[in-house]
Structures are given as C-alpha cells and as structure tokens.
Amino acid sequence: MYEADDKMISLIADNYNLLESLGRFGINLGFGDKTVKEVCEDQGVDTYTFLAIVNYSINGYREFDDNDRMSVPTLIHYLKASHEYFLDYQLPNIRKELKEALDDSDNLARLIMKMYDSYAHEIRTHMKYEEQTVFPYVNTLLSKEVKGDYDIDTFSKHHGQTTQKLRELKNIIIKYLPSNTQRNNLLTTVLYDLYKNEEWLGQHAEVEDYIFIPAIRRLERKLKQNDVSVKISKMISQGPESNEALSEREKDVIISLVQGMTNKEIADHLCISTNTVITHRRNIARKLQIHSPAGLTIYAIVNNLVDISSVKL
What we know:
Order of helices and strands: HHHHHHHHHHHHH
Largest sheet: none
Structural class: mainly alpha
Strand content: under 5%
Mean pLDDT: 83
Radius of gyration: 24 Å
C-alpha cells in the first residue's frame, strides 16, 4: 500500500505502468525526490483520490478509509484525460500497426480491419456518451443542481465491459489468419498491444465502477438527502469457450447469414420457423464465441463453408 509520505519516484520504480497514469492526472515529470503529497499539492491534484486510484490499480485495494474525501473534480479530470489518451492515441496507433501487419490484397485481412473498426466505433461511442451525458450531469451536481430524472444508476445499469469484440478479434487473428514469416513478428506485436489494450480498458472500467460511480452516488445522496444504497455493478465475465461441434443445420444457417439473408429469408430457405433460426443463431454464438457478421464470415471461409469469391465484403 502506498501512502502520502512515500516518494513518488518509489511508486514508479515499483510499477512503471504508473507513468501512463501520471499524465492522466496532469502530473508532469521532473519532481525530484518529493513525496506523493508534495507532488500532488504542487500540481493541483487531490492526494487522497490519486492514492485511491493508484492503490486500486496496483493492488486491487478499495477499502478506502474515508470515501467522503474522494475528489470528484479530480476523478473527472482523470477519466477525461484517459478517454483522450485512448481515443486519440491508443486506438489509432493500434489500427496503424494492424494495417501494417496485414496484407491489403487479402480479403480476410480486410475483414479483420472491418472488425477492428467496428470495435473502435463501439468504444468511441461508449466514451462519447460519458463525455456528452455523464460528465455534464456530474458537473450539475457539483454546482449543487439536480435536473431531470437522470442519475448515476442509469449509467451504472448499462455500464460494463466493452471488450467482447476485442477478444473475438484477438482469437480470430490467432486461430484463422494466415501469415508468413515476415508478417508474423508484426502480428505478434499487434496482438501484444491488443492484449495490453484489453487490460487497460478493463482497469479503466473498474475505476469507474468501484471509485467513480460510488463517489457520484454519495454526491447524489447528499444533494437529495435520501438513502440511496451504494451498489457497485459487477462486470459480466465471459464464459469459457465451448467445444461443442456445430450441427449441419447450424452450418446451413451460417452459410445463409454470410450470404446476407435475413432471419425470415433463412427460415423460408431452410423451411423452418423464424424462431428456430434465432435459436440456431444463439447456439452458434455460444459454441463459437463469435457474435459479429464479419467474424462468422471469416469462420465460414477458413472452414470451407463458403468460397471467399462469393462473399460480399
């Protein structure tokens, strides 16, 4: 556990990943041998909130001794800076690496890029929602105003991990993407960055779940003077990958999906009900752990269910 009187340089020596966090707090390097408290006070950062995030990120510690001391403005600054770092640096940089690692003439590579862009769009939408809705709402609370029916629980109920597409993308690259020796090192580097990306995003979501959301609940409780109970959302973990084989009918459904058919068109084509088609699709997603059309298309191609020349990219 790190405390206010510890040297800031000691924290970094113990865990160099903190270097990324310093920038999100607005802490600049060049602080010499000053303590955490001295550095935070010099650079306008709340020491208690800084240590809460650092100790949670490193040690998973969240038994804070005085939750009322958590600084909401410091949390907002940290989260906004994290979004800027992720959207303006991490996502574009990984896309550039991925593009360099793939063969532009390979249709499978084009589908991989399409999956990454879909993942990036989902993350961008998620973070933009926080920027445009959640943070302005919190600012109204800081101004001691309560407007409308919105509250932090509305955000919390729909807040969770957004890494399903990223896991799917990593698994497809590892399992199905052909590569030559020259591109293998590039792909390995991209995969490493994708794993780090998933780890960072998960930690970011946990800071929101275990530190930010409870802090806003307390702020709401003070303003509304009621007994809103503190309830932290648990992230839904993805179950282990299934080893069940696809049935012939499920393969027929995949082929129809890849050809662009709707559920009703598939039902008519296979002489089954629409509800049965939906059931098959759920079973396919459960067995393969693939939920996107692009992912199913790649699966169908590499398993010779369809010919790549017949696929509309």
